[in-house]
Amino acid sequence: MNHLPIVPILLPSLAGTLMLLPPLSKRLWLQRWITGFGLLALVVVAGALMVLAQQQIRIYALGGWQPPFGIVLVVDRMTALLLMTTAILASCAGLYSAENEDRQGPFFYSLFWFQIMGINGAFLTGDLFNLFVFFEVLLISSYALLIHGGGKEKTKAGFQYVSLNLIGSALFLVALGTLYGTVGSLNMADLAAKVRFLTPEEQILAKVGGLLLLLVFSLKAALLPLHFWLPKAYGAASASVAALFAILTKVGFYAICRVFSGIFGDNGGDLAHFAAPWIWPLAIATIAVGSVGIYAAASLRMATANVVIVSAGTLLLTLVVNDGQSLPIGLFYLLHSTAVTGALFLVADQMGTQRGAAPNQHVGTAPEKQSALLGWLFLTASVAAVGLPPLSGFVGKALLLQSTTRFIEQVWVWPALLISSFASLVAFSRAGTAYFWNATPSPSPPVGGDKLRLTQIVAISILLASTALMAVYADRILTYSQGAAEDLRRHPLTDSANLTEERSGLNAAHES
Amino acid sequence: MPRLTERWGRSASAAAAALLPAAVLAILLPRVSAVLAGQVYRLEANWIPSHGMNFGFQLDGLSLLFSTLIVGIGLLVILYARYYLPERDKGGRFYAYLLFFMAAMLGVVLSTNLLQLWFFWELTSVSSFLLIGYWHHRSDARRGARMALTMTGAGGLALLGGFVLIGQTVGSYDIGQVLSNGHLIQSSGRYHAILILVLLGAFTKSAQFPFHFWLPHAMAAPTPVSAYLHSATMVKAGLFLLARLYPILAGTASWFLIVSITGMLTMLIGAYQALLKHDLKGLLAYSTISHLGLITLLFGMGSALAAVAAVFHIINHATFKASLFMAAGIIDHETGSRDMRKLNGLWKHMPITATLAMVAAAAMAGVPLLNGFLSKEMFFAETLDQSTLGSISWMIPVFATIGAAFSVAYSLRFIHDVFFNGEPVNLPRKPHEPPRYMRVPVEILVALCLIIGILPEYTAGKVLAGASTVVLGGQLPTYHLHIWHGLNTPFVMSVIAMFAGGAIYYGRGRIFKLQTFFPARDESRLFDDAMRKGQHFFRTLLDHFDNGSMQRAVFWLLFVALVFMMVPLMELDMTIGLRPQIPVDFVMISGATLLCVSSVATVIWHHQRLLAILLLSVVGLVVAIVFALFSAPDLALTQLSVEVVTIVLLLLSLHFLPKRIRNFSSPTIIIRDASLAVLIGGVVGTITFALLTQPFDTISGFFTENAKSLGGGTNVVNVILVDFRGFDTYGEISVLAIAAIGITALIDGIHQAKIPSDPNALGWAIDKHPMMLSVISQAMLPLAIVVSVYIFLRGHNLPGGGFIAGLITAIAMIQQYVAQGYTWLAARMPLNYPSMVAGGLLTAAMTGLGAFLWRQPFLKSWHGHPHLPLIGEIELASAMVFDLGVYLTVVGACMMILSRLGRLSSSSEAR
Question: pTM higher than 0.95, yes or no?
Fold first, then answer.
């Protein structure tokens, strides 16, 4: 029995739990070290899963209960890729937080680990209700992390965040009830196999359920007009938390992929791609408002938060452009935007704290303590974010433009993509000149916060280096994500050989 | 590298910087003759072959010409900058940027692939941004840099669109492939889109009207940068693009109209503006724009000879303009001023520099024996051949002559104002000759102007032919490079331009006076203001949309939910399915009425928090009854206990909230929200009705059938919770645990912030801990715990289980808190709730992990019926241990929240 698939859930869960218990709960330094090694292990496990998934889709039946009755974890290339992304991003966020931020409130690492547990669980599960459970884990821990450190702004942003998402959870349950009442199952693969046999009346109800799921996931992915929580939440959170949150909106996108490419995808019969006409306007409007948001942002953090919104819209586009054939490019873009926004949040935070006065506005003040270093980090991060060469953003953008071939799609997609890039170009060049070039050397010693420590520089550099590496090894990543997109469409239950193997193992277990 | 060597001084960093161009030159030179003979060197590597992106370099006639210009002038600029930069600047950063630019520019001209070309194209924009903003303490440098980046960046994005369109049309991004498939592009319906997008890219880069205004402001850069990027190389990238794509894009009426008219306008506007500038570099900047316009015009004319002339003028302009910029830099450096109203009579102070500058300026004006003259003659000859504009084609040579006349006028101004025309006025420094080696680059370039001007065929001839062949796609027209073509019309036009130029210069006072009627404009400020205004506008717009109101966000969420549910439902004709229905009885009707009334009442009285909470509890109780009625005792029990715990916690937190809400919504919003609520309720009701009346075919049968045989329990709900879907439960108890520690952290934050309880909040009762209550609840505690143990144990077979038992225990303990108060109990029951929660989670996880020992998946359960002496056969299941974990987590989480709230309230009371 290969237990590897459950490790990305169990390891964070145990780490989070143990850090609440006495030997660890009072010793922050021990928590830091364990977190470090745990994250490293997570990266290794994700790597191993990436290799495993390339051979075959793995199913892990929890409690030994066969699908569709029990809960299964499914490791395909899509999942493995996202687990890896999460592991790397979390490592960087953890590394960054270990200097100072983890001290600003209680239970930081516990929450941090539970957050990872929720994210990984959402990526791994093959069951819609279980997805709901992990959404809850993810939501409640992100809420707790968001208000980590306290303060009025965080509490306020957190309140809106958690309230909206709780309403979302309620709607999620309505959606699940509707789908279960119509199709009679919650296992994703089982659903995928069954939706095409629905009667016309049932199809309508399944559509209602499906669209409600789209709504709930769009809320997570911060698509228009459900994005209201995002700028405030990301703007208020601690830097490492905001960086970790870079993956959160991607969970929403991932879930949309699972449902609308896996279940209501090519094999959906009458329901195949029924949501595409809904997804189009959502995506375009999100990019449009996000771009305006980037352009109009008064602070760097707000601009970055809007970059997250734009990337959410762009990702969603890849699901529908070209009948979903662009999804591999979308996955590439997902990796890129996760790394970049993560890095930008970290850099923006340092830029703000080091200058002391006017931490978050585009005005000239005394120079940052490490203005040369920060300047380079910021330049690299913004080049990647705007989508300029030589970093990965440009590859994703060019490929996405290229894969949009139909005229009617080009008319929508191209202006959206190009104008969003332009908006960020303007915004980041303005920010850069204001923060680094418009510095008046002050006679008094700088009053700003601490300098970047070596570990923090490493954390940011890993993220930035990964965007460069992504551009260099773009072909390999695209090949893998091509496979991921295929896995998404071809669900394991339709792959009968795979299932029989698991089933026979199961029966043998019961007989013994 | 220059950054590393700068510690050894300016010369060291300059020398280090010169290594790269020298190396490139060493690679280029041996291949010159072969390339001119028509050979093409290619070097290619796969990058993203699956999407048609490869990485490669190719050296043909056109790229040879451009790379020679880039590297050659680059070397001269490096030498020049060594003396130009101020003493304290060691130049490491400067040279690093400069090399970055040089590499990017070489990449542009050597690319084999359109997307790769774009890749380097954008890098030139970025490096130009860094170089313009090199003296970043100056606000004009910052503005200029931003504006240049914005304009060229926007053009770059358009260009990317154009390239991708080309790629999609041709099916390849390889430049060779693209060039040989020109017919595909010209015949495709996308030709115009491609043309416009590509031209937008080229025109913004090459500062063509109406995008020209960024270039003069880019002059805030150090002069070597202006000489290099903004006259000799980068701005030529747009022209390079026109030349590269000439075979596939040129030759149509739209090409002619757009390109030549743009070029013409740019040439005239640039030439006129150049005359007006008092700043030396401003004059040169506008003259650059004008000459770029001239070259664009030549490309636009579409004839083969015009293209040759365009390429030739690219060479000539690069040589004379770079030397002029360097001369201007020397003047600036040695006098401290660039204002031509102050700079006068420098001939006496720096005769050598003056001579050099005068020769270069003469080349710019198109004086015979110099290279500028030759290409200008070719230009004139071509304008005469034009007939595309029909009967008004005669205007082209006329405008060309006017442009040339202005060119003569500003060249004259450059020479006469600066070097003669009286004495210097208030110069910051005493003018003198520059250091010897600062002049060398200028000398070399000026010598080139002369040599090419006198012996064109032997010097530039072959390179020109090589490059033009590529531009024209193979066939080279017959042309002759001679100094003297005889007394023909072009020569007459030149002579007219000379005299007219002289006249214009003589009458410049009138033009200056005319110009005073127009308000002076600073484009960079206008641009900045426009950007700022746009930003402000959009911010207001966004704030209007997202005003931070929670109500609005929720409204949108629910509104979208409504639309998503309603639209598919409208297709549904019949909601009543075929399922037999249960008759409605009195209990149901009264229950439903109670539920509706209490829900509506909660909403109506939500301003009075206490009342609202009490009404809410009624809703919860009715729901519990509904569960019980429809034979779901487990759910009913859970609902009941959850209800009690939440209501108590809510009541506790009331202490910190105002009794009443002061803000009331406007009637419009109330109506809006009420209608939304009614609609959503109706829609969800319809869905539920439709669902419940459908024939039901689900997997639930499996659970009811196998609970006993496979799960070892008869209570299906509990077996599902702890076994079939135990993983869900594991997740949910994690949620509970996280919520508890999250709330703890939140309350601790409030605690530290010392937020006092609201003065209008509900105070505690005066009789804090009534005697009766404390006595009874103390007696109740053991009883309640026994009950919860009972509930826990029977859980696997009868309604109950860890979750409900945990809640019952929690209620019993909460009662102790209520009765005795926080401090009293905390002293007597020192339980560490976080550990309890963690212990519960750990128990559950360990139960699951135990299965690993038997090589079974996580949470695989075991159950059996061991026979114990005395007691007899008992039923045991590993799931019960898991359930114990659930129990501990639930108790711990509830108590953790409660105790924090309690601590907070007792501390706020103490104040």
Answer: no
